[in-house]
Amino acid sequence: MELYRVLLVDDEEDIRVGISQKMDWESLGFALVGEAENGRDALELADQLHPDVILTDIKMPFMDGLDLCRILTVRLPASKFVVFSGFDDFEYAKQAIRMNVSEYILKPINAAELHAVLQKLKEQLDTERAERQNMETLRRRYEESLPVLRSLFLSRLLSGQVAREQVAELAARYEVDLGGASWTVALAHVSGDAGRNELLPISVQQLFEENLQLEGCSCQLFMYNGFVAVLGAFQSGVSIYDFIEAVNRVCALAESYLGLDLTVGVGAACSAVEDLSQSADGARSALEYRSLVGRGRAIYIGDLEPDAGVRLAFGESDEQQLTSAIKLCGEDEVRSAVGYLMDRLRASGRTMSQCQLFFLELLTCLLKLARAADLELEAVFGSNFSGTVNVTDFDSPEQLGDWCLERCLKIQSLIRRQRTDSAGRTVERAKKFIQDHYAESELSVEMLCEHLHLSPTYFSTLFKREVGMSFTAYVTVVRMEAAAAALRNTEEKTYLIARQCGYDDPNYFSYVFKRHFGVSPTKYRAG
User: Fold this and answer.
1) Which one, out of 39, 175, 280, 453, has a CA that is 20 to 30 A from the CA of 115?
2) Is 310 among the domain residues?
3) How far apart are CA 521 and CA 173, in angstroms?
4) Confidence of residue 91 (pLDDT cuts 50, 70, 90)
């Protein structure tokens, strides 16, 4: 079992030594990972070590224990706090309770008492850890949510919002059987005032579940954008017309049993589940013909639009996949995304001129990406770009694919360069702000981020990545360099230099200066 991490904070070294040596930390289930002699140092250590337990004195220089607890309660909400003090003061106890402190111990600290407190904290931490890691509880909650998650997944699949490489993984996770040789989507619509009855879709779904029977066909039923959706999976030898006949029987039963005028749009069958969004589009289109061909029956889009089953479209999922590859992934993912699109174009068997709409939709996606990133179109598409390109300018899908890949990689490169430049500019603005405000004792990352209009969490990660040290450490370096220059070049009193460098407390200034340079301000000036 992993040991819980403890941070010990007290300005008296003999107390820290006594506590650290008297406790058999490991046998209690803890590891003492850090010690600090004041609240400010403890704050920096806590940001690095993420302790599970903070043992802290109340009365300390520079920052007291209660202020430390107040700040860390926000930053480390799962941590436990134990405060100890030599003052039997009820006000301290009340403040400690408000700071979510677990225990309040009076000095002198009794080893047996601290041992008991740590045992109690260990039990609390074990319980919380067990609750978080209790797989049976998580599994039960997951299973309770599974019908909703399954329906949401199928709805996203029909809307083209699931990346093709995630379909199999998510289907397995949500226990959705997508086995079959081909698939189709049917959407049920109830006409007239009855369609406004909120409970009616449940009856329609139940009617399908009980009566849609076809050997060699398995069906999933769920609510989708106000329709009752039927996802049919066919084994070899089952045709779309067998499915339509079975749906027509349910429509007839709806009229007999429920007195409903039930019309069902049926999309073209597809050979890949990744293309179900096209079948769903076809089912919606089929329903638009109900005023022409009649209600209360199944309407197959293939009867009305013979080419619907081989429609080549650059859909929402294609745009999401390509956009994600360009903005978030590497070159290999971009090549894969473009290759997939070109494979579909070739598989459609269409001539280049018949693929103009597909290409224009793809080109529009690239234009939107470039404009959203504020890129110069000429930098992406070349100096002679007029705003459009004809698919007939290319002799083959291979040539078209090479052109698209080059444009996609160019956009990716320019966006990355833009991000790097933006990060650099942000850090330079931050450094200038620090340089202009280091003399202010209230300078903080929150104050800086309000100026930069960034979240503190994002800025802290960005700053440390670009500069190699935290915001706090960088501010300390700037202040120490200013202090050293003032000590070398002026006769100002040390306490005035401390104030000029953002330290209201001269003692804390001297402490930080000695920690930074290895000598006190007085010796530094003399040397």
Assistant:
1) 39
2) no
3) 63
4) low
pLDDT reported for residue 378: 87
Confidence (pTM): 0.52
Q: How many angstroms separate the CA atoms of 47 and 456, rounded? A: 13
Q: Write the single-letter amino acid at 272.
A: A
Other CB atoms closer than 10 Å to residue 111's CB: what's the count?
12
Domain boundary among 133, 163, 193: 133
Task: Determine the pLDDT at residue 388.
Answer: 76
Residue 159 shares a structural domain with residue 289 = yes
What pairing do the DSSP bridges indicate for beta strands 262-266 and 182-190?
Answer: antiparallel
| 261 lies in some domain | yes
**pLDDT exceeds 60 at position 206:** yes
In a domain, 424, yes or no: no
Rg of the chain over Cα atoms, rounded to whole angstroms, equals 34
> What pLDDT, in 10s, does the model give residues 143-152?
778 888 899 9
Closest CA to 223 of 244, 201, 256: 201
58 falls in which pLDDT band (50, 70, 90)? Answer: confident
What mean pLDDT is predicted for residues 159-188?
A: 89
Per-residue tokens: 120: 């109690």
| Residues 86, 172 within the same domain | no
User: What's the CA angle centered on 340, arms 336 and 344, to 5 degrees?
Assistant: 170
Check if the beta carbon of residue 76 is closer than 8 Å to that of residue 85. no
Return d(Cα 195, Cα 248) in angstroms, integer: 19
Which of 105, 133, 161 is the endpoint of a domain?
133
Structural domain count of the chain: 4
Domain membership flag for residue 14 = yes
Are both 477 and 388 inside the same structural domain?
no
- Range in 205-214, 323-332, 391-400 the model is least confident about: 391-400
Residue 223, strand partner residues: 228
